[in-house]
Amino acid sequence: MSTQKEGPVPGIPYFTSLSSNIYLLKTALLTSSSSSAMAKSQALQSNLDVDYVISYRFAKTDKATAAAKFEKLCEALSNVGLQTEVRNGDSHSVLLFVRVASDEHLFGEVYRSRVRDWIHGVRAAAPSKETRESLEAEPLYEAERLRTIYQLITNPVSEGGAGITPKEGEWESVESIFALHDHAYNKDWIKKWSSQWFLNTEDLDDIRNRLGEKIAFYFAFTQSYFTFLVFPAAFGFAAWLVLGSFSPIYGIVSAVWCTVFTEYWKQQEIDLGVRWGVKGVSKIDIKRRDFQHEKTNTDPITGEQVGFFSASKRFQRQLLQIPFALIAALSLGAVITTCFGIEVFISEVYNGPLKSVLVFIPTGILTTVNPILNTLLTQVATRLTDFENYETAAAHDTALTQKIFVMNFIMSYLGIFLTAFVYVPFGTLIVPHLDIFNVAVRPFAEDEKQLHHTTTSWSINPDRLRKQVIYFTVTAQVVNLGMELIVPYLKRRGFAKFKQFQSARAAKNGGASPSAAANDSPEDSAFLERVRKEAELDVYDVTADLREMVVQFGYLSLFSVVWPLTAVSFLINDWIELRADAMKICVEMQRPVPWRADTIGPWLDSLSFLTWLGSLTTSALVYMFWNQSAGPGGNPSTIQLWALLLTVFFSEHLFILFRWAVRIVISKLDSPGLQKERRDRFLVRKQYFEENLSAMEKIPRMTDNGGEITRRSLEDDARQSSLSDSTPEGRFWGRQRGWRETATVAKGLIEQAQNETTTERKKEL
Amino acid sequence: MSTQKEGPVPGIPYFTSLSSNIYLLKTALLTSSSSSAMAKSQALQSNLDVDYVISYRFAKTDKATAAAKFEKLCEALSNVGLQTEVRNGDSHSVLLFVRVASDEHLFGEVYRSRVRDWIHGVRAAAPSKETRESLEAEPLYEAERLRTIYQLITNPVSEGGAGITPKEGEWESVESIFALHDHAYNKDWIKKWSSQWFLNTEDLDDIRNRLGEKIAFYFAFTQSYFTFLVFPAAFGFAAWLVLGSFSPIYGIVSAVWCTVFTEYWKQQEIDLGVRWGVKGVSKIDIKRRDFQHEKTNTDPITGEQVGFFSASKRFQRQLLQIPFALIAALSLGAVITTCFGIEVFISEVYNGPLKSVLVFIPTGILTTVNPILNTLLTQVATRLTDFENYETAAAHDTALTQKIFVMNFIMSYLGIFLTAFVYVPFGTLIVPHLDIFNVAVRPFAEDEKQLHHTTTSWSINPDRLRKQVIYFTVTAQVVNLGMELIVPYLKRRGFAKFKQFQSARAAKNGGASPSAAANDSPEDSAFLERVRKEAELDVYDVTADLREMVVQFGYLSLFSVVWPLTAVSFLINDWIELRADAMKICVEMQRPVPWRADTIGPWLDSLSFLTWLGSLTTSALVYMFWNQSAGPGGNPSTIQLWALLLTVFFSEHLFILFRWAVRIVISKLDSPGLQKERRDRFLVRKQYFEENLSAMEKIPRMTDNGGEITRRSLEDDARQSSLSDSTPEGRFWGRQRGWRETATVAKGLIEQAQNETTTERKKEL
Predict the structure, then answer these.
(1) Please, where are the H alpha helices in A637-671?
(2) Which of B188, B316, B377, B432 is most buried as measured by Cβ atoms within 10 A of its Cβ?
(3) One domain, residues B392 and B441
(4) Cβ within 8 Å, pair B649-A646
(5) Is residue B590 within 8 Å of residue B538, measured between CB atoms?
(6) Cβ–Cβ of B78/A108 closer than 8 Å?
């Protein structure tokens, strides 16, 4: 804990220079050591106008088919106005370079996308029918351009695309479609961030412009979370010094903070969505390509043939989620519970021989069995979600995220739940039964008496809960971060070494080395080598990073009352995490396709769920463990079920009430995004009004006629007679012509009425 | 209860003919008995093209000012293209008839309104700039026309209206602005409804076309509620026969029904909103005219000067809601609790003299004190809401509705809550202390022993709760309905009698009778007399009727487990209520201004709140009173606090889970409204695409060039040298021209790679 108190300050300059060095080191690794320094720098600086690279792998196909398919690929791309160049790739692959040659197709795609946005309310005004003009008024930013080109390549032919679907159906040989990193920008990015305390909105705008809104939303979320963490870190530190653990004051402040943060973020999403012009894009349904239809129906609206899959059949398949959740809960739960039991027994009950060795058993089991189980369950979850056969990408993602959240929930929090709500209240009842383990180690026992002695004198270890929370919020976070950064690096390093060894062996065996670079022109070779390395990198998955943050938030909302320094640890961790993720995207991953998003998606629900659950666990923990006279202090005999339930019940409803109040207050606040939205709307409206109302001005006012008619008002009788042959309506409306006549008649009526009153009053007197 | 079992069937034909007769009777009352039958019928049939009638009352102003103001009124109306006719009104008022003379201003208002709708997403497509054309394509329905004219009269001059604000500021003498009833339609309406079991969507469309969406939404809600009631009525009847009171099965079914209904209605609102073209109108902020600004700020968006009122100041004022709620709860609570105490004491404990008289004390107190308190508190609530000074009409309505809901909640449900959760569990502790009343009646006591005897032998009356629920769900509903129909009728009758008497006295005193009809032309007199009567009618307030329905729903969700026949009573009551409300609008009220709405507004929140609270009360009641072996059966000694809390806790969370599931299922369902919305969007998109994509077709495909270049592919070397002086990008992209060349080169690369593998494999062999 003493390392925590030192704070992040002395570490940061070191990290700054370190991270810059790591970046240089890593990017250097991407270019071969054999090329000259000039060419290396050149290869890093320029992408030679390449928009996308398509990696085409033909190892599993025969020569003729591969060549024919490739020809088709080139033709399809050419049909949508893309220019192609082919170069040799690594082991049985070629790299197809693609750039936009004819703007018309790109503009067509942009127009189509903008019309779709406008129909769904993402844009306030309809796009001008002159695309070239409107593009000049509102030029594409880099991410938008890349996204549009990607859609041009992958969209079905019927929607104006080339219909290339990587790794699927006809295009199984198309391994990946990726854009090239902008290394000059990346270097500046990492350098800037590593010397900056807080990221401002311009930094996020920058990410949005380069990597698209989906990734920008992850960084915006983490940055908001990081900024919000400053308060609980400071307050938590004070609480740790003054109040100690399980303080109800800390519990309330923490719950309030979590609620405010969750609600603030919801508003922030809207704001950023408007700022980035993507508000509402998540409502645009994108059809899933893998969707399997039972039959085709004629859409009653569009008249098109659309695939149909009955909802009841999907519901039946969704019911499989119940056994899945049960199996996940039971298998993961069984592993965690077993390890928990063994650990409690060995560390607290058992005092026999080999204790120093046996104590590692649970850690051993957890670190081997859990990742295997996790991988297995994730595969099952993915298959199950595929089987559920959703029509839209959004529905698919939500369903998958929910399953993954359930698994993560069990893996991350079950251990602490067991300690708090099983071990402490029921420990004295359960732990003696852990004797079964005793039987196993009995052969090793030196004397019988020692074993007997320990089991009887056992009492609950009150520090276990705190230690466990510290483990999850400090140790596990650091380990995670290390794994994220170092493992892929080592993996890549090892892979490079293996290939070096392989080609060396090949060179030893035969004369001609099958090097991919053999045909490269000397001018391009550094560039091509870099592209070949980038082709081998992994695809970045932003949801994994989001999941990590949400799980971390869960520790804070559920258990931070156990150890108030939690937020301090997270604050430090997240500062590094933000930068490490940026570096990961730049160095260890292919440049991601810049998808749009206007939310962090289903994880937002997880966030709300964790905040709500926090109101239950925090109040329960405070009631059970607060060591003051008011509470029962973790002694099971003094815990009253009714009092616990009452505490939780009140806490939950206070939370719901408070959340409602926060929502109202936040909805009232104005923000730059909302202002922008109103301004856009106002401008469109103003334009329309001005066009129309200028026409209105020309209408002659009826007053003009009125003046004319007043002169004629004396001719009343003449008119009366002329009306006699018209309709009742005509007669009714014909009596007074123009407002002046009406006013004159009314004056008479008013005077008459007033006179009558006066007369009447006089008579009465 | 036996009257309930008879069912509504025999009653309905009677009601049908009765209601027709009442309608004829009542409308006949509107026309004077002195005019001829022909004229009467004529006056009822035709509105003589009158769009609106403005009642101008000058009793409190002097002659000159009244006439000058009236002149100004006529001029303002004329300026917006309205023709005016003035006629004499009743006692110191004139009636100003208004109709549209120049369409341009009306069209301008329609255009302005449609642009506003389009900007806010209410309309899918922008309105055509040629209003006359677009009006021909999409003509105004009656309610739309009337609303537009009303807005033309009342909107500020700056927004193109005449700026007439009834009863306010400059226009204080303008008493009311109302349209005339369409009696021919009204008669058909009542006749049709009284012979119809269920109302279908066309009936609701009809109301929407005549009376506007806001009133149509009330009828749609009540109709949906009525239809939904059929199931709980049938199930409740079966439960009453088989299961008895407090059955957990009935409780679950009832909670499920309430949840499904609430969520269904939310979806139905969207559907109807789309059907009626008003989806999203509640999001269009309408500025409140009474809004008092502290200072004027320049709007950053529009550049206009707008009133500003600081949110913190409003929040301080809103804090007054806390003392208000406390005072309301305490005062109403005190009255109800006192009456409850007296009633329990007199009916159950007291056995002394005058019991038969004393038993009416609580009813007497309730019926006198409660309405007074209610009126007082409603006034305070209205003033408080005015004081809170909301900027928009919607915010004002919500704030007022919330306050009124709190008051209604206390008045309607507190009594039953007291019985269920105070009287039963704590009755044995509290009731003996009600002895204080004993002291008061002691003088009347005949013998001391009798008094003493009763207090000790007292035990809880298990039937009290059921009786109370029956009172509120049957007796009170019938009384309410009666009050709603009969009291206004008697009031109007009495008022007419009083005026008759007055004018008779005036005629006796002086010669000249100040009759309003004195100046009427014989042709118009019947019509004018009818208009004068309509001018005196009350203004219809749809929220009062909505409140009644929501409060009724509350009994069902909160307490119907006590008496399962509740829904049967409501089913009968609501069938009549729907028709009675229609009649009320037609006969007893001025024709309402047809406002738009896309929801039942803040009452929707009340509905959700009551559904949620129902999950708590129903489970608690079932736990406490279920007379089987499983539960404690209402005997206070057997009620365990922890078990009660656990029951409620589980029930609430089951409810939340179930509501979530229902929401998901309902959101998946397609509906005619949603289909219409999609169709509208699709058509707009299609139109845009077609215009643009026809231009796209003309772009020459790159393939054409490809063929030409293949021929040249042998000239490779020559091209290489010609490229040497261009940029690196130019050189990179110049190597292969056209997709055919790329494919050819790729073929070579693929062959080479395959050959190498073969060679390598051979060598290894």
Answers:
(1) 641-668
(2) B377
(3) yes
(4) no
(5) yes
(6) no
Distance CA A634, CA A420 (A): 9
Burial B625-661 (b: 16+ CB within 10 A, else e): bbeeeebbbbbeeebeeebbbbbbbebbeebeebbee
The residue to which tokens 């308060």 are assigned: A231
Q: Is B65 found in the same domain as B37?
A: no
Residue with tokens 């026949």: B565
Over residues A297-329, the pLDDT tens digits come to 877 777 777 778 888 888 888 888 889 989 888
Instruction: Pick the residue from chain A with its C-alpha nearest to B511.
Output: A760
Contact A410, A333 (CB under 8 A): yes
Task: Look at residue B551 in the predicted model and tell me its pLDDT.
Answer: 93
B719: containing domain: 702-764
Judge if A133 and A266 occupy the same domain: no
Shared domain check, B487 and B408? yes
B196: Cα separation from own chain's centroid: 24
- The letter for the amino acid at B97 is F
What's the pTM?
A: 0.82
Torsion angle defined by CA atoms of residues B313, B318, B319 and B320, in that order, rounded to the nearest 10 degrees? 110
Which of B71, B99, B750 lies nearest to residue A94, judging by beta carbons?
B750
Quote the number of domains for chain A.
3
Question: Whole-angstrom Cα distance, residue A363 to residue A476?
Answer: 13
Residues A172, A103, single domain; the answer is yes
Q: Does any domain span residue B686?
A: no
The answer to whether residue A443 sits within a structural domain is no
Answer yes or no: are the C-beta atoms of A603 and A547 closer than 8 Å. Answer: yes
Contacts of B350 (CB under 8 A, 6+ apart): B358, B437, B438, B441, B454
Instruction: Looking at the structure, tell me whether residues A707 and A663 fall in a common domain.
Output: no
Confirm whether B531 is domain-assigned.
no
Rounded to a whole number of angstroms, the distance from the CA of B719 to the nearest CA of chain A is: 15
Q: Which residues of B691-711 are buried (b: 16+ CB within 10 A; e: fewer)?
A: ebeeebeeeeebeebbeeebe
Chain A to chain B, count of Cβ pairs less than 8 Å apart?
A: 297
Residues of A within 8 A of B92 (CB-CB) are 753-754, 757
Contact B258, B557 (CB under 8 A): yes
Across the interface, whether the CB atoms of A681 and B84 are under 8 A apart is answered no
- The model's pLDDT over B473-492, given as tens digits with 9 standing for 90+, comes to 888 888 888 887 788 788 87
**Looking at the DSSP assignment, which residues form a beta bridge with residue A589?**
A538
Over its C-alpha atoms, chain A yields an Rg (Å, rounded) of 36
Q: Is A91 inside any structural domain?
A: yes
Could you tell me which residues come within 8 angstroms of residue B406 by beta carbon, excluding any fewer than 6 positions away? Answer: B325, B328, B329
- Chain B residues with CB under 8 Å of A764 CB are 509
pLDDT tens for residues B288-345?
A: 877 888 888 877 777 777 778 888 888 888 888 889 989 888 888 888 888 888 887 7
Question: From CA B750, how far away is CA B744, in angstroms rounded?
Answer: 10
Per mean pLDDT, which range of A139-143, A192-196, B368-372 is the poorest? Answer: B368-372
Whether B699 and A102 lie within 8 Å, measured CB to CB: yes
Distance CA B638, CA B615 (A): 22
Sorting pLDDT into bands at 50, 70 and 90, what band is B679? Answer: confident
Q: Report in angstroms the alpha-carbon separations of A576 from A199, A370, A568, B564.
A: 13, 26, 13, 62
Dihedral, B546, B547, B549, B550 alpha carbons, nearest 10:
120
Q: What is the mean pLDDT of residues B85-100?
A: 86
- Rounded CA-CA distance B24/A89 in Å is 92
Are B15 and B113 contained in the same domain? no
In this predicted model, what pLDDT tens digit does every residue of B546-596 receive, in sequence order? 999 999 999 999 999 999 999 999 999 999 999 889 988 988 889 999 998
- Over 90: is that where the pLDDT of A418 sits? no
* Contact between chains at A83 and B733 (C-beta distance less than 8 A): yes
